[in-house]
Amino acid sequence: MEKLKLYKKQIKFHLILNLVFGIFITFSTYYNLPLKYFSDYLIYFIHFLMLQFTVFGFLYILSINKYIFYATFPPLFIFYSLFSYWVYTQDITVSGSIIQAAIETKMNIAIDLISLPLLLYFFLIIGVLIFIIKLYNKLHINQLKSPLILFSIIGILTFFIVENYKFGVFKRRLPYSLTFAIINYSNKPELKISSISNKIKHRQTSINIIFVLGESVRADHLRLNNYSRNTTPLLNEIKNVISLPNVYTPFTYTAISVPQILTNTSITQIKTSPIYSLYSILNNSNFKTYWIGNQTPEKSYYSFINENNYVELIDKFHSVLSFHKKLDNELIPPFKKIFNKTTNQFITLHMIGSHWWYENRYSKNFRKYKPVINSKYIPSLTKNEIINSYDNTILYLDNFLHSIISILKKEHTETILIYLSDHGEILGENGKWLHAQNDGSSTNPAMIVWYSDEFKKAHPDKVRNLKNNADKKITTDFFFNSILDLIEVENFNYVKSKSIFYNKNNYVNEEN
Ligand SMILES: [Zn+2]
């Protein structure tokens, strides 16, 4: 009887502990989800309960020994709750960037972040924490011998089994997102980039190159590639625009596709050695490199970004997972500021593009195709709604590229712009959606080239070859090799035959 009472007390304690933890930490990563039907809410509520059940497993283990509990729970609870404050109020994404910022931010900036609501929230956390500790002190039970430990082990196992089955189900949400962000931040990047010490010689020294790195845009949804809807009304009308509809990449998510595009690694041989980055080569020639990005950088290509002579990251605490992410037009003002009449500029613009959730990627005046999606839960949406929203993001892209080209035109320099999406997107084919899975459309990214009249005049052969190559099947290996071919690098090995500026008809003949 006495034992039953103790168990009751123990169950009550863990219920309250998890309720508090759920409200202050776990629930914050669900709070900003746009949902439509009762069923959407129900699904995410079950998701939340499952996640909290796995958290219960870990918290239970932590609570077995009172010294461990006193030493770890209070700092963890305060630390995680402070992060969730920003997730609740601003929908920030807990990732490596935020950890870096938290570690590297100077004291005066940190003080600026303190507001009255945050202060009140902080005192609330402390109050709740004291309450939990008091409850814990009244627990006079050996938790190691309680049957609850069985449930806690099931909770922990659930975490690992579900994560193994589908990566990110739990890991992308608090408290796990923060834990893994810290682990990732302290790990070294996977790709080992070799440095280049000698001066790179190249024959072309009067070219400006603008690289627009797109996101999740599939080739066949551009009118330029004969899509039934006119999704590229502005690009259709300007001259010197060439679309290359047959680009292939097997890497269908950003973290693996971007490093391949920016290095000499090939799609068939990712582990080439040594690995050279395009930016090291350009920096060792007389090019000036700039990176302006509207994506939270992934660890796998963070080092490439930092190689650039100038780096500006817009809105870096809101990743694709946030519903308050800024639009790509924010890239234009900093771009305008740096692009000028001089030559030898290599500017990368990294877009958030057409990444899910599509409604967050364009402004209202591009809502041409309706009805659009209004829930994040895919099964409650129609195929038509999803495609409408997606196509509206392409209209926005059309306008974005048109704006950039208008800026480039004004300077009358030998300028070329290469737009390449990092991968495509699946829109219901074979019952699949989005990307990070290989299907015809996720492996076929959109690619568009524009060049100035001055470029055309100075490099007629390159333009002719580009036009001849436009319909050929190429892989994203083209990028690294085309840039080196474009500036005619002399003392660095690359695969000229993979360049889009190379006369491939000749090449085939030579081989025959
Ligand atoms: Zn991507």
Quick description:
This protein has 512 residues and is an alpha/beta fold.
How would you explain this protein's 3D organization?
It is a single chain. With 512 residues, the protein is of the alpha/beta class. It has two domains: 185 residues, no CATH class; 236 residues, Alkaline Phosphatase, subunit A (3-Layer(aba) Sandwich), CATH 3.40.720. The chain is 48% helix and 9% strand. The protein is built from 19 helices and eleven strands. The strands form three sheets. It has a seven-stranded mixed sheet, with helices on both faces. A two-stranded parallel ribbon has the order 3-11. Helix 13 links the parallel strand 4 and strand 5. Helix 1 runs antiparallel to helix 7 and helix 4 runs antiparallel to helix 7. It is elongated, with a radius of gyration of 26 Å. The site of zinc ion has 6 residues, from loops.
CATH class type of the largest domain? Alpha Beta
Mean pLDDT comes to 89
Bound molecules: zinc ion
Q: Give the end-to-end Cα distance, rounded to a whole number of Å.
A: 91 Å
Order of helices and strands: HHHHHHHHHEHEEHHEHEHEHEEEEHHEHH
Return residue spans where pLDDT drops below 50 for at least 5 consecutive residues: 508-512
CATH topology of the largest domain: Alkaline Phosphatase, subunit A
Q: Looking at the structure, what is the overall shape?
A: elongated
CATH superfamily of the largest domain: Alkaline Phosphatase, subunit A
Please identify the structural class as seen in this structure: alpha/beta
| Global Rg | 26 Å
Level-2 CATH architecture of the largest domain: 3-Layer(aba) Sandwich
Total domain modules: 2
Sequence of strands across the biggest β-sheet:
2-10-7-1-6-4-5
Helix fraction, binned, reads 40-55%
Report the sheet-strand fraction. 5-15%
Number of helices: 19
* Extended strand count: 11
Q: For the report, how would you describe the main beta sheet?
A: 7 strands, mixed
